[in-house]
Amino acid sequence: MRAQRTQEFNVPTGVLAYTVLWIVLAATQAGIGSTALAEITAFVRGRRRTYDHATAETPAEDPLVHQVIGAVSAKVGSARHIVRGAAAVVEESFLQVRGHTDLEDPVVVQAHARANIALSEASLVVSDLILEATNQIFESGGASATDASRQLHQHWLNARTIASHTPLIYRTQAVGDYRINGAIPPFHSTARNSAAAEAATPSTTEGA
């Protein structure tokens, strides 16, 4: 099915509206990671309970805990840098298509592909980094870190929810198809019921 030739976009981001939405989601994931890092660092700093086989008197002095926090920090920092790099590509593409509404205009197609692929690649890596980081924080806090009142588990859940928005398996496939075959990614990403499923669903009005 060919894309609608022209389309009115009642948003400032125009024909790159969905790509800009994705950069917001990727930036949100990086922000989740930053908050998780700040909260687990504060938790470790104030924690006094440790273990017989620990390497220091307190978690804040323990080189093994330092290693965990350092690894989490590296992942969160890398995610932020990746998001900024992708955002720069999206901004450049946005400036190129400003005022354009024809989805078959070569300028629009190429700018869309460049921005979409850059952001898809970024989203794949950022999602992995933040999901790993928000899981790894618990290695530094023991069972106390899982206390529901601390809400540290919420960071992983929030990151997982964003990663499931336009599932990453489809982003990966789109990147691969573009790199191998030059296939332009869709301008939109919306959920739908399959035609077969719709046909198999009994009508609620039958016999009425």
TrEMBL record:
Species assigned in the record: Citricoccus parietis
Keywords: Oxidoreductase
Acyl-CoA dehydrogenase C-terminal domain mapped to chain residues: 23-166
InterPro entries: Acyl-CoA_DH_C (IPR013107), AcylCo_DH-like_C (IPR036250)
Pfam families: Acyl-CoA_dh_2
Protein name per its UniProtKB record: Acyl-CoA dehydrogenase C-terminal domain-containing protein
